[in-house]
Amino acid sequence: MENIKLVVVGDGAVGKSCLLISYTTNSFPSEYVPTVFDNYSANVMVDGKPYNLGLWDTAGQEDYDRLRPLSYPQTDVFLICYSVANPASLSNVTAKWIPEIRHHCPDVPVMLVACKTDLRGKDGSSSTASKPCSTPEEGMAVAKEIRAAYAETSALLQDGLKSCFDRAIELVSINRKVLKKSKKKKSSFSRSKSKTESVLIPPVMPPAGKAPWIEIESSCFENDWHNVLEEAKFSDVTFVAEGNRDLEAHRIVLYCASPFFRKVLASGKPEGNIDVVKTVEPFSREDLNAGKIKGIRSVHEAEEKTRIELDVDIKAKTFGRVLEFLYTGSPRLSEDAEPAELQEVRKVAAIFDMAELVTICDNIEREEEFLNPSIGTFLNDAAGAQMKDWFLNKELGSDVVFVLDGQKVFAHKVVLSTRSNVMAAMFSGNFRESGTDKLIEIPIPTAPLETFLALLEYLYSDHASLEDNTDLMGVLKLADEYCQPRLVTMCELYISKEVDRACSDRIEKAEIDVVGLLNTAKILNAKQLADFCRHFISTNYDAFSRRKEFSALEKADRKHVEEHRWPPLSYLKEVEAFERELNRKGEEFVEEEEEEEEEEEEEEEEEGEKFEEEEIAGTAAAVSVKRRRRRRRWERRRLRNGRNRISNNGSGSSSSSFRTIDI
């Protein structure tokens, strides 16, 4: 196991200690404690080789300028740290730290490390200071100036730590090879240079940057249904409380949200025979009107509405809370609700078999209201799923029919107008009614059936089965057309995943047209998808530039892609310069090796002649053991050279001319 000494330097409070602690312990320190001197150790594997990494932490304050160099002897690599939120710490890299390191350890490789990258905002500003954060380009420019490697890290997010220290170990390995070669030359020849050659550091490829995060807009399902409860549009059920207080409601919501009222409503109209109530046994109309069902005095069917009279001891305000719970999953009780009001709501909830509402009241009473939103979310999801399964595209109970390619799709005005302002406006127009069923018939000439059903599924349930949908762009178009911003964001997310899948093997041959997708996303107001496409094209610039649709990029998008292309042109130029320098050094190395071989051959020839003269003169017995060994090496070299000449002379010929070598 190789031992490596790594010393970290930099201004005070730039994140040196956090960098080491987070790397060695995988945890971020809870408080800031200024460092004087500290040591850490880590055993790591890099390229299949084990290393013991000794990490030396130093103080950056001026008070310790005289003590700090005591940590420098036998250092293998320096990490100069600076904070991206403190531009002065980057300036001090060239003003203070490089001069100090070059003075004490001129031949030790250096790595420039940007710390606290999590403080960078999207616009490059700092979240803790008024000054903007330093950019990666500024850091790489300084690294290039001081001929150092470069890395960006966030100790808080554990981002870039492993790659940073792996890179440092790689620099040490390269430097040790150079030093070993230099020492070998120095031990063999007196003409070696006084200083080792500097390590040729390859340019650092800048990060491509993460793809824009596509955020799903918050659900408005609860608010939509609360609004329709207050407005009482298209209501078909009337509750009578306190003898003369009417509260309007909707049959479809009561069916989906309350098993109790499902039994009540299934006792009368034909809907009682559909799938929605096949699993429950309806109350009999006789029992309801005889007062045998607790909480209900009577139920009467009118031409347009069902009228349900509640027991007189149920207050209108209390039952209003119950309806809010059924429509939104929450009774919307204030935090300072009176205990008496809570008791009334709990009592009515128990009468109508609403266990979740009882739990919500208990949580409020115990001051654990934070548990209630999750209950509401669960209930809304369950009600939406039942609404989709029981009522979407079901003829019984419907009052709207859409016609697509000759096929009929049944729906409900209350759902459509509640969830879509565009749909609500459609019902205010002049649509003809079909026959005696009083169905509003609306032709949809442009949308495919599967795509339109995906839109209706979202309106009914607040969810959409987009995983298996083959026309996501069609759904996106309808979502924009019917003003459904949350569905737009859902489509953006699934389309971005589809782009990743389609281009996972080879972008140049991928069937998906990302440029066309970008242009369409802009038309459909899908801003997040457009940003994703720009980033995807920019970070795969070389591949997309060879596709024929690349020319279809609009001027503004082309400019953005050129400015944000990855790898950037500056990096490609640095790679070309590095390769030229590498080739130049390689040629110099080959020339030096050839010169060394020639000089070795000349010296060995001279020694061999000297040995022959000594043996002829009868002085072979006086030759030392050391010189005998040198003679044997010379003889083996002559033999090897002879064999090489034999091989070269005999190649391509059936009969080779051999040369005898005397030993």
Structure notes:
One of its GO terms (biological process) is small GTPase-mediated signal transduction. It holds the Pfam family BTB. GO terms for molecular function: GTP binding; GTPase activity. Mean pLDDT is 84; it is low at 188-196, 432-436 and 645-663. The protein contains 23 helices and 14 strands. Among the domains are: 2-188, 3-Layer(aba) Sandwich (Rossmann fold), CATH 3.40.50.300; 221-391, 2-Layer Sandwich (Potassium Channel Kv1.1, Chain A); 623-646 and 657-663. The strands form three sheets. A six-stranded mixed sheet has the order 2-3-1-4-5-6, with helices on both faces. A four-stranded mixed sheet has the order 8-7-10-9. Strands 12-11-14-13 form a four-stranded mixed sheet. The protein has helices at residues 16-25, 87-104, 136-145, 161-188, 221-231, 251-257, 259-265, 285-289, 316-328, 339-351, 355-365, 372-391, 413-419, 421-426, 449-461, 472-481, 485-502, 514-523, 527-539, 541-545, 555-563, 569-616, 625-650, and strands at residues 2-10, 37-46, 49-58, 77-83, 110-115, 149-152, 237-241, 245-249, 296-301, 306-310, 400-404, 407-411, 433-434, 439-443. By secondary structure, the protein is an alpha/beta fold. Helix 5 runs antiparallel to helix 9 (316-328). A hairpin with a 4-residue loop joins strand 13 (433-434) and strand 14.
